Q: What sequence folds into this?
């Protein structure tokens, strides 16, 4: 011990010698320095006072039995490079590395204790603590890829505890592929001298982790043998987040690019940053062009103020978004309408970042709206200024609107306008021809609400002031796009004056026909008598004159008949009698009667199949119809040409055709010959007639739900075909 004490002055470490009494018997100068106690004061210090200065590595006191000097003595154990924290009275603590050894007497008793200690390298210690506190993993590799140092305390990310890695080669620890990458990075770093950064994934404890790595060269003391620093950071979370962001961004991109709606991002100053294809197509500009020109350049000047006002509010944060319909100009100058929605994206501090504009092309809809407004304007003008009354009803028949003319014609008070259809109908009290009230269910108005259109119905109605008027009434149901009836519209014309004129005319006609018939009968009666008297007379001229009187009287008579019939027809006084007629027999009898009256009837050939179904029509009226057609056929064809009558079935009706080979009818006359008093030019100049026959024929047929049609070729002849409903089999 004495020798040790002698050389202790030359040692770089602190040295304490304790004697048999466990007290300091020697301390070198370095020990005084390290312990911050002068060697003189150390002399005689007991063992437990020295032990009390050593704390564990976390700086906490150590129990007596674990304290280093006590442990050495009690367990007779040497401590080699045991590390402790040295807590000094007036100076900061630091780590020391401690060695203890016992000195024995020859008989084996403890003679003393040698304690030497050095201060641990402070910076390395600190560095370890520092790196340990970081999330990063730091390795040091030698040029052969061996782990030299593991500066990390995040053991869960190391493939093995740090101490086990030291001295092993990287390919023993990580998969070959990653080891290859690391080796190639070493080579690259060595060759270029520049750090290499890369990312890699590694399965750690059953989960894949992503790492960011930086390999750099560490200058070596020894020439040509560098080492490498390897810094790795776990970026798994960031990676996952990145993937999610990329995925959502891809989704957003797809939406942006393919949207059928125009989308643009713009800087708060209105400059376009990005525009999708749809917007480019809408405006006719490329995305680059849109970036260059300000928004105002393709905005309609009249819409800019309203837009800017809203935009300012958006910037001020008063609103989050706004929408408006505005006009834009395409590159080709064409004006389009868009429905624009603008919203503002702000950063975390609330500063405006960019605006998002969504534009839908509504030009077509706008044009339709404008056109609709124009049409509505026109309709309104017609509605207001029409001389005829116009009434709009809802689906229940309540009046929605009526124009002044309608109010005036019907004499409606405001209360009556609001009344129900039944109440208004009661007010009208329309009558049947026999004077009885026509029930609402049978009225034309009611049928309109069953979906039927009514054209020109004439009604005799009573106004609220008691006056009775005649109105012509047309009405149509109104349907919505799904085909549901939503109401009706009617047009009324006051035809009281016309109707009165017509009534008077009919009275005249009736009177004329009736009152002229008697003198005419007298004239033709006396002319017949005169003819009989002159039959044997040599005065042939007198006889001829008598014949002419008779013919003229006959013609006049048939005119009277026609006029009377017309009067009856038009005043609704014709009464219909239904008979079941067997056409074959009927025509046979008819021809017999005709042949008796006129030789001309010999020209008629009838071919009516006897097995044809019976028809349902009044016999007297059918006689008038066929007589009319046959007499026309005979009248308008040459005396040597035949007239044919045929009949056949056609769609549940029996059709009878009267065909002649006469002069025919010009196409322009065909449509008119069924009109009242119409006669063709050639007929007017030749054969006598009234122009009423076909009109009356048609009216009769229509009364019996029949019809008439004609086909004719000039100089080849005409065929008049009438069709009459078949009688029910039981009839
Ligand atoms: P009308 O008493 O003049 O015969 P209708 O009403 O019977 O009057 O016929 C109207 C017109 O139709 C006739 O004036 C005639 O011009 C034309 N018409 C009718 N039937 C024939 C026919 N079979 N052939 C040529 N023209 C005809």
A:
């Amino acid at each position: 011990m004495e020798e040790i004490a002698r050389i202790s002055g030359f040692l770089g470490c602190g040295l304490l010698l304790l004697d048999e009494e466990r007290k300091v018997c020697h301390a070198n100068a370095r020990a005084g320095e390290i312990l911050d106690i002068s060697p003189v004061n150390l002399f005689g210090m007991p063992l437990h006072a020295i032990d009390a200065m050593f704390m564990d590595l976390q700086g906490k006191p150590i129990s007596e039995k674990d304290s280093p000097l006590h442990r050495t003595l009690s367990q007779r154990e040497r401590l080699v490079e045991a590390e402790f924290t040295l807590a000094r009275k007036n100076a900061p603590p630091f780590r020391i590395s401690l060695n203890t050894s016992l000195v024995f007497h020859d008989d084996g008793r403890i003679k003393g204790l040698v304690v030497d200690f050095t201060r641990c390298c402070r910076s390395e210690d600190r560095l370890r603590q520092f790196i340990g506190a970081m999330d990063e993993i730091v390795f040091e590799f030698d040029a052969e890829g061996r782990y030299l140092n593991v500066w990390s305390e995040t053991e869960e990310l190391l493939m093995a505890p740090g101490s086990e890695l030291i001295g092993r080669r990287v390919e023993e620890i990580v998969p070959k592929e990653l080891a290859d990458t690391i080796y190639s990075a070493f080579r690259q770093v060595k060759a270029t001298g520049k750090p290499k950064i890369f990312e890699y994934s590694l399965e750690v404890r059953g989960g894949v982790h992503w790492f960011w790595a930086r390999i750099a060269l560490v200058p070596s003391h020894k020439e040509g043998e560098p080492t490498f620093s390897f810094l790795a950071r776990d970026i798994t979370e960031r990676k996952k987040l990145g993937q999610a962001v990329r995925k959502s961004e891809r989704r957003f991109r797809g939406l942006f690019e393919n949207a059928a709606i125009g989308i643009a991002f713009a800087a708060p100053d209105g400059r376009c940053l990005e525009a999708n294809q749809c917007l480019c197509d809408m405006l006719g500009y490329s995305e680059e062009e849109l970036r260059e020109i300000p928004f105002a350049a393709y905005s309609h000047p009249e819409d800019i103020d309203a837009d800017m006002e809203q935009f300012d509010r958006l910037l001020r944060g008063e609103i989050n978004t706004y929408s408006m319909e505005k006009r834009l100009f395409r590159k080709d100058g064409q004006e389009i309408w868009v429905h624009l929605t603008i919203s503002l994206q702000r950063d975390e501090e609330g500063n405006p970042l960019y605006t998002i504009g969504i534009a839908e092309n509504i030009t077509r809809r706008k044009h339709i709206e404008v056109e609709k407004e124009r049409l509505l304007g026109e309709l309104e003008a017609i509605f207001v200024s029409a001389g005829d009354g116009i009434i709009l009803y809802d689906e229940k028949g309540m009046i929605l609107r009526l124009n002044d003319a309608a109010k005036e014609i019907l004499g409606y008070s405001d209360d009556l306008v609001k009344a129900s259809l039944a109440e208004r109908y009661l007010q009208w009290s329309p009558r049947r021809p026999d004077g009885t009230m026509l029930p609402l269910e049978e009225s034309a108005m009611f049928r309109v609400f069953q979906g039927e259109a009514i054209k020109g119905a004439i009604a005799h109605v009573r106004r609220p002031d008691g006056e009775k008027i005649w109105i012509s009434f047309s009405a149509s149901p109104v349907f919505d796009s799904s085909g549901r009836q939503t109401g009706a519209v009617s047009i009324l014309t006051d035809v009281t004056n016309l109707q009165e004129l017509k009534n008077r005319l009919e009275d005249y006609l009736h009177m004329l026909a009736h009152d002229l018939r008697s003198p005419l009968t007298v004239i033709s009666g006396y002319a017949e008598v005169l003819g009989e008297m002159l039959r044997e007379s040599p005065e042939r001229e007198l006889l001829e004159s008598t014949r002419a009187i008779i013919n003229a009287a006959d013609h006049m008579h048939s005119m009277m008949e026609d006029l009377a019939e017309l009067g009856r027809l038009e005043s609704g006084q014709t009464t219909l009698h239904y008979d079941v007629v067997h056409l074959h027999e009927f025509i046979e009898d008819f021809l017999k009667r005709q042949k008796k009256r006129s030789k001309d009837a010999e020209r008629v050939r009838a071919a009516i199949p006897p097995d044809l179904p019976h028809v349902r029509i009044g016999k007297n009226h059918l006689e008038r119809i066929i007589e009319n057609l046959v007499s026309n056929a005979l009248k308008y064809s040459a005396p040597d040409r035949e007239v044919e009558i045929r009949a056949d079935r056609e769609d549940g009706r029996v059709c009878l055709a009267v065909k002649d080979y006469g002069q025919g009818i010009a196409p322009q006359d065909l449509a008119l010959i069924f009109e009242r008093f119409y006669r063709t030019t050639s007929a007017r100049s030749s054969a006598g007639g009234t122009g009423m026959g076909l009109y009356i024929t048609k009216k009769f047929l229509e009364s019996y739900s029949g019809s008439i049609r004609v086909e004719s070729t000039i100089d080849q002849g005409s065929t008049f075909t009438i069709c009459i409903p078949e009688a029910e089999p039981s009839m």
Q: What stands out?
A: The pocket of adenosine-5'-diphosphate is lined by residues 628, 632-633, 636, 660, 662-663, 665, 673, 678-680, 683, 689-695, 718 (CB under 6 Å). The mean pLDDT is 87. The longest strand covers residues 207-218.
